[in-house]
């Protein structure tokens, strides 16, 4: 089962530079073949279907624990898309056509179907698909896939990084590049344990260091690239049987932190009257909420 903490894994900048085109590019990192919904669901289903979880516990713990971290990654990508869309449409009344300036900009479904928030689709508005889940049950093959998936995810993030320098997007990208690097290395190390093949020697894939990017280096300076968080009050304790030793790039000691990162507050989500979010007359909803909180 899951517990939920109403915080993001990192502190995100306040949304002040709306950019629906960047929001559309970031959608690839949500619902794309190599997006966060894919990493989340691949590891989640692999953990559901894992056979021999008691006898092969370090490997089960690793997959299940990383799956849980990925829940917080879709949350961060969601916060980024919402943040990039916030304030992108005029906030005037309906009869002034407040959406006319975003007509044909970015993904029209952000305005036509959504409430100026993230959708479960990629950058061409194709829905995320369960077909992206790879789970044969063969542990080595599934881990090899996970390693490849993290490499593809890294490629996607690097290209989105090249498409936008919006501070919200760059903060999310800096963090997720580092965390994806951790997961790449974790799966490489699991494969090394199982097969003897020194997979970590293949890193970086793509062959560019995270230290090149200031937004990424900041998190590395805090040792995020060498840290695996244990996302459970009491379980998944055997991740440290795999996540140990040193980082192949800079020799940092790999360590497990018990519990989630401190993170930052979620964005309160400004009203967007052009899409009637949270309602055409939000004051009425506010009244009802006020009554509930008094009672
Ligand atoms: Mn991720």
UniProtKB/TrEMBL annotation:
<keyword id="KW-0106">Calcium</keyword>
<feature type="binding site">
    <location>
        <position position="36"/>
    </location>
    <ligand>
        <name>Mn(2+)</name>
    </ligand>
</feature>
<keyword id="KW-0575">Peroxidase</keyword>
<keyword id="KW-0464">Manganese</keyword>
<comment type="similarity">
    <text>Belongs to the manganese catalase family.</text>
</comment>
<keyword id="KW-0479">Metal-binding</keyword>
<dbReference type="InterPro" id="IPR009078">
    <property type="entry name" value="Ferritin-like_SF"/>
</dbReference>
<keyword id="KW-0560">Oxidoreductase</keyword>
<feature type="binding site">
    <location>
        <position position="70"/>
    </location>
    <ligand>
        <name>Mn(2+)</name>
    </ligand>
</feature>
<dbReference type="InterPro" id="IPR012347">
    <property type="entry name" value="Ferritin-like"/>
</dbReference>
<feature type="binding site">
    <location>
        <position position="183"/>
    </location>
    <ligand>
        <name>Mn(2+)</name>
    </ligand>
</feature>
<dbReference type="GO" id="GO:0004096">
    <property type="term" value="F:catalase activity"/>
</dbReference>
<feature type="binding site">
    <location>
        <position position="150"/>
    </location>
    <ligand>
        <name>Mn(2+)</name>
    </ligand>
</feature>
<dbReference type="Pfam" id="PF05067">
    <property type="entry name" value="Mn_catalase"/>
</dbReference>
<feature type="binding site">
    <location>
        <position position="73"/>
    </location>
    <ligand>
        <name>Mn(2+)</name>
    </ligand>
</feature>
<dbReference type="GO" id="GO:0046872">
    <property type="term" value="F:metal ion binding"/>
</dbReference>
<feature type="binding site">
    <location>
        <position position="232"/>
    </location>
    <ligand>
        <name>Ca(2+)</name>
    </ligand>
</feature>
<dbReference type="InterPro" id="IPR039377">
    <property type="entry name" value="Mn_catalase_dom"/>
</dbReference>
<feature type="binding site">
    <location>
        <position position="61"/>
    </location>
    <ligand>
        <name>Ca(2+)</name>
    </ligand>
</feature>
<dbReference type="InterPro" id="IPR007760">
    <property type="entry name" value="Mn_catalase"/>
</dbReference>
<protein>
    <submittedName>
        <fullName>Manganese catalase</fullName>
        <ecNumber>1.11.1.6</ecNumber>
    </submittedName>
</protein>
């Amino acid at each position: 089962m899951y517990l939920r903490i109403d915080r993001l894994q990192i502190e995100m900048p306040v949304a002040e530079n709306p950019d629906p085109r960047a929001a559309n590019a970031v959608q690839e990192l949500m619902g794309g073949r190599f997006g966060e919904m894919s990493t989340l669901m691949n590891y989640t289903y692999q953990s559901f279907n894992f056979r021999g979880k008691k006898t092969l516990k370090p490997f089960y713990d690793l997959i299940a624990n990383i799956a849980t971290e990925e829940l917080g990654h879709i949350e961060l990508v969601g916060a980024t898309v919402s943040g990039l869309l916030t304030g992108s449409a005029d906030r005037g009344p309906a009869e002034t056509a407040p959406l006319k300036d975003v007509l044909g900009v970015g993904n029209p479904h952000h305005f036509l179907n959504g409430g100026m928030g993230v959708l479960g689709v990629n950058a061409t508005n194709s829905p995320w698909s369960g077909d992206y889940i790879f789970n044969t049950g063969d542990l080595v093959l599934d881990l090899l896939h996970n390693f490849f998936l993290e490499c593809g995810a890294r490629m996607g993030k690097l290209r989105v990084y090249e498409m936008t320098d919006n501070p919200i997007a760059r903060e999310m990208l800096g963090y997720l590049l580092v965390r994806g690097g951790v997961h790449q290395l974790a799966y490489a190390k699991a494969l090394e344990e199982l097969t003897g093949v020194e997979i970590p020697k293949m890193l970086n894939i793509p062959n560019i260091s995270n230290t090149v990017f200031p937004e990424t280096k900041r998190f590395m300076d805090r040792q995020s690239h060498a840290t695996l968080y244990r996302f459970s009050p009491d379980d998944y304790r055997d991740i440290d049987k795999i996540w140990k030793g040193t980082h192949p790039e800079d020799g940092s000691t790999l360590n497990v932190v018990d519990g989630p990162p401190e993170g930052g507050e979620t964005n309160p989500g400004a009203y967007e009257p052009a899409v009637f979010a949270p309602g055409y007359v939000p004051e009425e909803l506010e009244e009802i909420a006020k009554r509930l909180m008094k009672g």
